[in-house]
Amino acid sequence: MACILAMHGHFFYAQNAYTWQDFVEDVTDESYAEEQGWTETMEELALQADRPMDINTATREQLGQLPFLSEEQIRDIHTYILLHRGMRTLSELMAIPSIDFRTRRYLSLFLRADPAVFERKDTLTLRSLLRHSRHEFASRIDIPLYYRLGYSYPPHSGGYAGSPLYHNVRYHLSARNHVEAGLSAEKDPGEPFRGNRGWDSYGGYLMLRNIRRLRSVVFGDYKMGFGEGLVVNSGFPTGKSGLMNRPAQGIRAKRGTDETDYFRGAATVVRVGNVDLTAWVSHRRLDATLNADGTARTILRSGLHRTETELSKKRNLGSTLTGGNVQWQHQGLHLGVTGYFQRFHRALSPGDALYRKIYPAGRNFGAASLSYGYARPWFSVTGETAYSTEKGGWATLNRATWKISPDYTLTGSHRFYSYKYYSFYASALSENSNVQNESGAMLRMDATPVERLTVMLYIDFFYNPWPRYNLDHSSSGQELLARADYQLNRRNSLMLRYQLKRKEQGDGLQPHHRLRLQYTRRQGQHWQMQSLLNLHRTAGSSLGWALSQRVRMKHDRLSLSSILTYFHTPDYRTRIFIYEPLLSGMYRYPSFYGHGLRLSAAVHYELWERRLRIELLYGLLRYTDRSVQGTGMQEIRSPWKQDISLQLRLRI
To answer: Of 525, 550, 566, which one is at a domain's C-terminal end?
Structure first.
């Protein structure tokens, strides 16, 4: 009994000490922090963390939406719940050997254990769904306390057509584990409200789950991922050091305000024995830059419609997509087939520049793949091989994991993405943003060499046979990352992280050295203080550095998080990324360069039996080496920059 109580107490402490900001810093790599796909991924995960799933009722598909969980871990969780008739607390995860300490910390943010599940019968009736339905309303407004140059010009002269305010509204409905629905609307800064159908973008969905053999069906906006992401993976890109093992599997509703990386139509999953059958159809209007002959040159992903030029590119390219997936699993072995056909209502014509000659051209496109894997407690192999129809290109990604001992895990992966291969919805392990024109091999070691010390080390080699942008020849590069976390005692911890990346740019080989030293002190369950030192150096540049002090406090219904940073870098190449406290459902990992001071503080307060949450975010930026910020229409003619964000969230 004493051992059980100690186990529960240890997990309870870890669960309460670990925060969303800790998770972001664990999984985010500065190399891709600015990529739009990663921002959308983290915003979606932030929304999931804000609405933790009940582990006792979560389906395999729902657990598969957490990209740090492997198929083996998902299977072990369901086996434990079946044998023990559920979990009464998350501390029982310690009894599952495949769920290590790091994964338990992650799961503490996204899962909960509801003991009431053992006392009720999950009868699927309209009355029970209405009685157990939960509603959430949220709205956010960002108010800049500065003025950009774009608001000084009329729209016909290139100025912004709308106000500088950002605004969104969201509604979410959930009923047991069977019904989920949502609506959202968003307006970015500079986008007009009047004459633009109100908010610039709208979204909505209805999702049904666990109705006999129908595992799930979604109408409206949705996302999905299969295999290793070579054919379809909307939303969850896998990073090298981001600890994201694979794309989230299956279909899921689009809960955020993402304007680019999603599908609109209908999708369904039906289970027959050990086989899951998935089918989908989607039709969307995309933003695109057009050529003089009416063909599309570039598909745009910014989602911004502030000027007359940007508004003229809004939703002028139609896309229709149909596809399906067949997935079979049995005793650690899984096989899957994924394929789709896509037709654009305008032909794509990317241009004659050397680096653009491998871009897709035409109207009709398709891709298909075979995914495979075999897992045992000490060893697993997974992979996917894909083929695209437009140029007849191949792509393959394969990885093997060997659990040498409980304290050492070795992972090796190899990828080959032909320059002829292209899938519009692919997102997989790669150095570049596209799954195309890349070969690479990576070796990674996760270890706990001594008690309280965890180490992660990887080395990656990559090669691009076709010339990339601003190059006229093939290129190559290497990346090395080492990270060590040491728990000094119950309250104090240290983290050291070093990254070296050597990659060819237009002016030659560019090595980047990045170092982060982080000290964290937790004072009970209410206070946490963190000191950070970031260094960044490149060839031909002086050393860039930033010193940050973070404070977090949580007491009853009030929580406060703030960070103060002084940064000093010689140029943009040595910019430094700092994660800042934000509001619920937000994600930003801004970079800073030059000399200056940055303050960010967020306050969260709950009232009305914690049903209503009021959140306020304040940001201040002061440059000491310039009097003007930004360029073009984004220019701010002041060294100061201040902004306020307010969010209200009501749960019923």
So the answer is: 525
